[in-house]
Amino acid sequence: MCLVPSMTTAQILASVFIGLNNFFSGLIVRPQFMTGLFSITYWITPGHYVYEGLVLAQYRDDDRAVIAVNNSDFYRFLGCDSQEEGDGSASECRGTVEQFVHVFFGERFNEANELQDILVLALFLVAARVMTFYALQKFNFSNT
Questions:
Q1: Alpha-carbon distance 48 to 66, whole Å?
Q2: Partners of 41 in the beta sheet?
Q3: Domain residue spans in the chain?
Q4: Contacts of 103 (CB under 8 A, 6+ apart)
Q5: What global pTM score does this model have?
Q6: DSSP state of 68
């Protein structure tokens, strides 16, 4: 947005980028549901890398119990659908918060991506600083 001379254009671009970032970062639409052309937007939005880092940092090694809902993805991941109820009594299927996060994001948010998240965010920050420096050196933004 620093490379456009008009304030109106910059505001419109900011709105578009914020909308794309919110919608495609994995917060509103989970990563496993972004397929085909929409998977590109997931990988190019910087919010995806921020959100993944925050989620992983907050829920890593979190062993609090989560009760799996019958026939959910988490329920099947824990193998509860294959357990046999010999006496007919229903027992709760439990997993950890870390396992739930792993399943909730379609196994795409994982610790192996941590270095990638940091490097991509650093690249976005450096690119934004370079473009801002260039814009401040080359453009005249006066409204006269």
A1: 25
A2: none
A3: 1-59+123-144, 62-83+90-109
A4: 73, 74, 77
A5: 0.74
A6: P
Residue 106 dihedral angles phi and psi, to the nearest 5°: 60, 30
Tokens representing 69 are 């809902």
Which two structure tokens, joined as six digits, stand for 106? 């379609």
Given this model, what pLDDT does residue 101 score? 93
Query: Which structure tokens are listed for 31?
Result: 């990563």
For the chain, how many residues are written? 144
pLDDT at 89: 46
Phi, psi of 43 (to 5 degrees): -80, -25
Q: Which residues of the chain have pLDDT under 50?
A: 86-89, 144
Return the pLDDT at 140. Answer: 67
Look at residue 142 in the predicted model and tell me its pLDDT. 61
Amino acid at 96: T
DSSP 38-66: HHHHHHH-HHHHHHHHHHHHHHTT---EE
